[in-house]
Structure formats: C-alpha cells, structure tokens
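Exam prep: given the inputs below (a chain plus uracil), describe the expected output before reading on.
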Amino acid sequence: MRMVDLIAKKRDGKELTTEEINFVIEGYTNGDIPDYQMSAFAMATYFRDMTERERADLTMAMVNSGDTIDLSAIEGIKVDKHSTGGVGDTTTLVLAPLVAALDIPVAKMSGRGLGHTGGTIDKLESIEGFHVEISKDEFVSLVNNHKIAVIGQTGNLTPADKKLYALRDVTATVNSIPLIASSIMSKKIAAGSDAIVLDVKTGAGAFMKTPEDAKELAHAMVSIGNNVGRKTMAVISDMGQPLGRAIGNSLEVQEAIDTLRGHGPEDLEELCLALGRQMVYLAGKASSLEDAEEQLKEVIRNCKALDKFKEFIANQGGNPEVVDHPEKLPQAAYRIEVPAREDGVVAEIVADEIGTAAMLLGAGRATKESEIDLAVGLMLNKKIGDAVKAGESLVTIHANREKVDDVIEKIYANIRIANHAEAPVLVHEIVTE
Ligand code: URA
Ligand code: CA
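Solution:
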C-alpha cells in the first residue's frame, strides 16, 4: 500500500477500506508517513468527508495507536460524560456524586488542560488535601466500594490523535466533522467506559457556533459510539452565555455544592438533569428517561448526593467540611462589583470573552506551565433575560489583585443590555441515534 494512492482515493471521494485506514493511522503514528502526506490526507477528508463506517474505523485506529484503560475490574456499567467545552461548565462536579449516589460506578480519569478555568482536577484540588495521585488498584477499589473516584491522566492514550490534532491545527483542517468526531470519540473509548453521554455545546462559547453544526457533530459521535459497541447519547446545549453563575475553580466547587443541595442556578440544574438522566438510563438503572430523572431528583432531596460528595472528598484525602463550610475553600482577597450603567434587560453575555476575563484574573492556564489561582474568578449576578437597574451589580469579581480595570473593561464590552431579551433555550435537542 502506498500513502499517495490513499490520498488520491480520498481526494476523488472514494471510500477507504478498514485496512487502508489502519495503514494511514499506524504509519502516521510510527513516523513512516510524513506530515506533508498526512496534511494532504486531512484536507482531502475535509472536502470529501467519510462514511459512517470509515469514521468508526478511523476512531478505532486511533484508539489502537496507544494504551487503553481496562476498567473491567470495576463492577457494573461504567458511564462516562464528555462535554465539547464551554465556559463555567460545572456539570462534571455535580454529576459525578449525583450519579454515584444511585450506585452507578463513576470511574473518572481527568486532565488539567488549558482553558478559561482549570479542568475538573484543578477544581477539586481547591479542596484542601484532595489529591488524584492514586494507584490504579486504589482507584478500582474506591469505585467498587464507594462508586466514585477520580484519577489523573495516566498512560499514553491515543498518540495518533495528539499528533493529528496538532497537525490539523496548523493546516486549517480542524473544522471537519469526521475528524472532530473521531478525535473526541477515540479519547473517550480509550478511557474505557461502557457507555458515553455527550454534551455538545453550541453558541459563542462553543466549538460549533450554530445548532445545525452541533447537531451534525452530535449525530456523528453517537453513530461512532454505537457502531463500535459503546452505547452513546448526546445532548445539544446552549453555550451562548456561561453556564451557571460561577466561573473559577473554588467558586465552581461551591456552585456544585449548592446544586447538589437543590439550590443551584436554574440552567446548571437543568443541564445536569438532562445529562444525568441519560447516564442513569444507559447504566441500566431506569426503565425510562423520566424514571431516571425522578431518581436523580430524589437523591438531591434526600441529601444522598451531597453525602456522596462528602464521602468522595474524604476518600481522596480532602476535607469534607468544605461542603457545609464553603468559607474553608480558597477565598480571593478582593471582591469588586461591576455595576450596570443603564436600566434594561441583559441581552447578551458573550461566553468565551467572559471566560477570558476570568483567565485574566488567573483562573485558567494560558500555557501548560501557567500556575492557576484557585480562589479567583467571576460570579454572574445577572443572566440573559434578567432585568437590571443602573447601579445594580452585573458581576462580582473575585481577585487577588487590587486593580482590575482590564477585567472590568472586558466585562462591559461583553455584556449587552437592551430593552427586551428572553432567556435562551438551554437544551436544544437530545440525540439518541
Ligand atoms: N476537540 C478534540 O478533542 N478534537 C477535535 O478535533 C476538536 C475538538
Ligand atoms: Ca458555572
């Protein structure tokens, strides 16, 4: 087989065989196929697309390019959740204990990553003592005995994706449905869960700017998952404005605690229930999505979800008292209000720009080496559709520096007040096949 022939075949819009796709990915991973040929292949794929079968084959070829996690020592159906990114997305912190409270195993491997705030692990590490440096055996035994554990990323997962994603970044081929879908799904499948719930975001703060594009991506990923034997469902949710009110690490831990108590922001609660009911259903614990949602609401009402969060924190060395005493979480030195300059209704809160404002305070990493300040961030006091009077606070800045003019300027530039506006629809669609 020659790479040049496979590039030509894809360029001409023909379907590649499983063997041909394996040849491309194996050759690229081990260095036999150079970047320039892979670039041409990615561009041909960008224009010619792939069939469902090719997409599933590409995904599995990337899974098989490196290590995979074996979770078979954990009893029960392991369901993982993945979000395609967003701002202030606190859902994982809520969903992990919420679902575990229904005896569904949550075996979460998580990374730190770049972004407006830290990843799930950074957020959890704002709890004093909490650590994710546990052995594989300890991880398995925690999940078997307590239904929940989080471990830091281990092993060399999907090296083909790492290499290809970096190449796509500099060859204008990121924005391709087959390439995005296989990239995301390969990482989820290598991480070892039996079933996958996807939260595909749409809007200013998301990868997919329109609901139509998000829907196409969701269908592509659900189809890959189901074609390779992992039950997969997706929710398409709005990321026009940040999710919930908190954007920042310890602020989001507190928001998660409020939500587990049943007192969270309405949108965060709604999305957690939409994703959670799919997780419970796929785990085989409910006869219908409605039944699943009832069970989730019940463990919020009877405090089992909150107790599970305390148990989880204590198991991994953290101080569970933060749940009842959130003042024990890292606190910023300064709180600065950003008042509205006119009467009206909040019409727009540009998610990614507001995320960048939180990053200016130090809530997220600009480079892999950056240090995160776990205490800082933003609290949105108003969301889209809320009425506001001049002088009322739009946002509370939690900062560890006294002068925050740059942050204030960014906030004013990205919150628009108008005469009328309505709260956006949060859950656009549920994709099951
Ligand atoms: N996220 C990924 O992991 N891969 C892509 O291709 C795009 C977004
Ligand atoms: Ca939030």
